[in-house]
Write a structure and sequence with these properties.
Layout lengths: L2 H7 L14 H11 L11 E6 L2 H9 L6 H4 L2 E8 L8 H12 L8 H13 L2 H25 L3 E5 L4 H7 L6 E2 L3 E5 L16 H4 L4
The structure holds flavin mononucleotide (FMN).
Flavin mononucleotide binds next to strand 3.
């Protein structure tokens, strides 16, 4: 599949084949492809909870408008966006700094500069922390949907759910926001896929003030 086909054929698929499992290796491949997603300072503030167990998926479904695709898809993911993923001392922030030092992109003595810059850009207000986490996790989610499509999988993103309910039910720590849920599997053959949805045109997207 070339890129045009991948981006055109990806659809939010409402009906999943309940008989067709998604293999661990294929899901892993999709996630590893999506891990190529860019992020601010390469901080990658995203994580996933993978639900495959029917009971766990039903628990989630009840907190998400009872959308059947959550339990019908063989895998449903809870996307997490780390609002603290810019902060000095955070394991991935420190890992990232060390990787940059090892790659020759930073000097060890720049640690304070790096910490201060990340704090100013991403941490100086709750809004900035939220924006940092969700914009980067959103890019990751999009990559994941396209990676899945390129591997023959279908997906459905959802933000129709009780955020605090999901946090509580799945013991999600406070530092994470939950931008969306994503059903992953195979479109149920014979089910009706809605016609392609309208999109804003070039002229409607481009603005000038
Ligand atoms: C962030 C986000 C949240 C969404 N939440 C839901 C949802 O809770 N339930 C649902 O049925 N569709 C949901 N959708 C799917 C959209 O309605 C769908 O992507 C859009 O209508 C365009 O259709 P297409 O993806 O098939 O091109 C969501 C999509 C996105 C990107």
């Amino acid at each position: 599949m070339d890129f045009k086909e991948v981006i055109t054929q990806r659809r939010a698929v409402n009906f999943f084949d309940t008989e067709k499992d998604v293999s661990e290796s294929l899901l892993r491949e999709a996630i590893e492809l999506a891990a190529k997603t860019p992020s601010g300072f390469n901080l990658q503030p995203w994580s996933l909870i993978i639900l495959k167990d029917k009971e766990e998926k039903m628990k989630l479904q009840k907190l998400a408008w009872n959308q059947p695709k959550i339990s019908e898809a063989p895998a449903t993911l809870i996307l997490l966006a780390d609002r603290q993923g810019w902060k000095a001392g955070h394991p991935f922030v420190e890992r990232n700094f060390n990787e940059m030092v090892n790659a020759g992109a930073m000097k060890p003595e720049q640690h304070q500069w790096f910490a201060d810059t990340c704090a100013a850009l991403y941490g100086s207000s709750e809004d900035k922390q939220q924006a940092f986490a969700c914009k980067n996790a959103g890019f990751f989610a999009m990559s994941l949907m396209l990676a899945a499509k390129s591997l023959g999988l279908d997906t459905h993103p959802m933000d129709g759910f009780d955020h605090e309910g999901v946090r509580k039910a799945f013991r999600v720590p406070e530092n994470y926001w939950i931008p969306l849920l994503m059903a992953v599997g195979y479109f149920r053959k014979g089910a009706e896929l809605s016609p392609p949805k309208w999109r804003k045109s070039f002229d409607e997207i481009v603005v000038k003030f």
